[in-house]
């Protein structure tokens, strides 16, 4: 049994020019990350620009590879790096 090949980026890339689709999916990726501003408003630059940049890069990976796998891996690495940064920052 194979998983359906549906993702936000995949749908957008089929319907819009690459850069329009990529910026839109990166903006959608950014939305849940904005919740961090509720607890750490002084981190606004990091909370906006890092996820947006990561979303653009992940969208390019999705488009160029034809798979969501590389984007998931990049997101996982970014999450681990964020946790390590917070742990080291706190002590």
- The total domain count is 1
Strand content: under 5%
Rg over CA atoms, rounded to whole Å, is: 15 Å
* Cα-to-Cα separation, first versus last residue: 47 Å
| Number of DSSP-assigned strands | 0
Specify the helix fraction band: over 70%
Low-pLDDT segments, ≥5 res: none
The dominant shape is: globular
What profile does the largest beta sheet have? Answer: none
- Note the run of SSEs as H and E: HHHH
Mean pLDDT: 87
How many individual helices?
A: 4
Category from helices, strands and their pairing: mainly alpha
Structure overview:
- The chain is mainly α and 91 residues long.
- It has one domain.
- Helix content is 75%, strand content 0%.
- The protein has four helices and no strands.
- The chain is globular and about 45 Å long.
Name some characteristics of this structure.
mainly alpha; 4 helices; 91 residues
Q: Any chance you could write out the topology, listing elements then pairs?
A:
Layout: H1 8-15, H2 18-33, H3 44-65, H4 69-90
In short:
Helices cover 75% and strands 0% of the residues. The protein is built from 4 helices and no strands.
